[in-house]
């Protein structure tokens, strides 16, 4: 499977936000992430960088939080 | 490998933009995509939807194409 883990950049550190992410859908200034188990999280953040080969999505919060 | 193909939504149709994408990096109102062969493309577009399990990135141009 090719899902990736999403990390949130907070105070220069990367915190795991959601594992095994499949779907990523921007909605206005928010992002909807859905993982392979159907778990869904919405966060006011933007994608900073993704590497699919490394299975990593790095998110950056617009205003320091959700 | 877990790269995905990026498609650009144009006039309601999906056109292949870049295959085997690894890195996605937003830069202002542009997106930088780099594939596993090191090929790089920059486009004024935003991510509309991604499914990592389906290896698909759907891009939407902000102003009807680059």
Q: Overview of this structure, please?
A:
Two copies of one chain form a homodimer. Chain A is mainly β. Chain A has a domain at 1-11 and 23-39 and 57-66. The first copy, chain A, has no helices and six strands. Chain A has strands spanning 4-10, 13-27, 30-35, 40-43, 45-51, 56-61. The first copy, chain A, has a six-stranded mixed beta sheet, with no helix packed on it. Chain A is globular. The N and C termini of chain A lie far apart (28 Å). The mean pLDDT of chain A is 92. Chains A and B meet through strand 2 and strand 5 of A and strand 2 and strand 5 of B. Strand 2 of chain A pairs antiparallel with strand 5 (45-51) of chain B.
Defining key terms:
homodimer, 66 residues, mainly beta, 6-stranded mixed beta sheet, 0% helix, 68% strand, globular
Q: Could you give the topology of this structure?
A:
The structure is a homodimer of 66-residue chains.
Chain A: E1 4-10, E2 13-27, E3 30-35, E4 40-43, E5 45-51, E6 56-61
Parallel strand pairs in A: 1-6
Antiparallel strand pairs in A: 1-2, 2-3, 3-4, 5-6
